[in-house]
């Protein structure tokens, strides 16, 4: 059984890069072939032994709650037909997981979204997964890799990957000492630095494991870039005490927060995942 019991999904954003479809549809419900992004995220959390799903929602996000619930009318309509097989995965998720929800009333950054989730998480270490970062691996999922590291190191961990130097202004970027192959003890974290001042090209992606003291730190963290509460600023407080690791995960990430990345992920998923199923 995993030492990490809950995974937090910040899902209250507006998804403006996908307008007009996200005017009435949550970005997290955009489908890669026939499954929404957030379901792939839940699958990854379950692969890591996590079964408590905590979702930060907002206005217009009811579809997220409806998806992870039983639709009795639909079940009745397809009962006894071949179409029942299409619901096997989501039925398993509903059966094996618990889902809790709270709303982020104001959009004040990822750090604020995570702080909003405190009431759902409590005083235990937890994972954070951003569903628009779709990750594929040949072995254990990204969160499973990170949970194994947490069991050894017992500190906050962020997933990182190398990005082109001219794209550092799209990410949180770390610097640190490599303690083991692909594992860095973080000494610096900067939110969306310009390429000429970025400390490295090691960018944080949407996978975190956080210790519960992050909530107290977030409460004391002033707004940073874009006048938002940045999780990188809060993590930097932990990093100053040597309590943050950055892990270059094994796998491939698709940025489904962009139209180009979403289409690339859709094509990959159709060719390598959907057809195998």
Q: Give the percentage of residues in beta strands.
A: 25-35%
Low-confidence stretches: none
What is CATH's topology name? Spore Coat Polysaccharide Biosynthesis Protein SpsA, Chain A
Q: Any guess at the CATH architecture?
A: Alpha-Beta Complex
Overall average residue pLDDT: 93
Can you give a write-up of this model?
Helices cover 32% and strands 26% of the residues. The longest helix is centred in the last third of the chain and has 16 residues, at 259-274. Helix 5 packs across helix 8. The strands form three sheets. The chain has a five-stranded mixed barrel with strand order 8-11-9-10-12. Strands 2-3 form a two-stranded antiparallel ribbon. The protein has helices at 37-47, 62-67, 72-78, 88-96, 110-116, 118-121, 142-153, 214-220, 231-239, 259-274, and strands spanning 6-10, 31-32, 35-36, 52-57, 98-103, 126-129, 133-136, 156-162, 172-180, 183-191, 202-210, 244-248, 252-255. With 277 residues, it is an alpha/beta fold. It has ten helices and 13 strands.
């Amino acid at each position: 059984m995993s030492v990490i019991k809950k995974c937090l999904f910040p899902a209250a954003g507006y998804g403006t890069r996908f307008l007009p479809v996200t005017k009435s549809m949550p970005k997290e419900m955009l489908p890669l072939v026939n499954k929404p992004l957030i379901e792939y995220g839940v699958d990854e959390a379950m692969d890591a032994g996590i079964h408590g799903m905590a979702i930060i929602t907002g206005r217009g996000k009811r579809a997220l709650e409806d998806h992870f619930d039983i639709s009795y009318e639909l079940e009745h309509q397809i009962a006894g037909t071949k179409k029942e097989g299409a619901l096997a995965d989501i039925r398993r998720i509903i059966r094996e997981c618990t889902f809790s929800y709270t709303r982020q009333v104001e959009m004040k950054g990822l750090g604020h979204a995570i702080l909003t989730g405190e009431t759902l998480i409590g005083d235990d270490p937890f994972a954070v997964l951003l569903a628009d970062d779709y990750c594929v691996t040949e072995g254990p999922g990204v969160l499973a890799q990170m949970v194994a590291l947490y069991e050894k190191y017992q500190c906050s961990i962020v997933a990182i990957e190398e990005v082109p130097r001219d794209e550092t202004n799209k990410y949180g970027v770390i610097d640190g000492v490599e303690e083991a192959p692909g594992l860095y003890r973080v000494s610096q974290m900067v939110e969306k630095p310009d390429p000429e001042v970025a400390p490295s090209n090691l960018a944080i992606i949407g996978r975190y494991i956080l210790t519960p003291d992050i909530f107290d730190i977030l409460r004391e963290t002033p707004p940073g870039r874009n006048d938002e509460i940045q999780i990188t600023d809060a993590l930097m407080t932990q990093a100053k005490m040597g309590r943050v690791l950055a892990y270059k995960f094994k796998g491939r990430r698709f940025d489904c927060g962009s139209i180009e990345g979403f289409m690339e992920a859709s094509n990959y998923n159709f060719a390598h995942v959907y057809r195998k199923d």
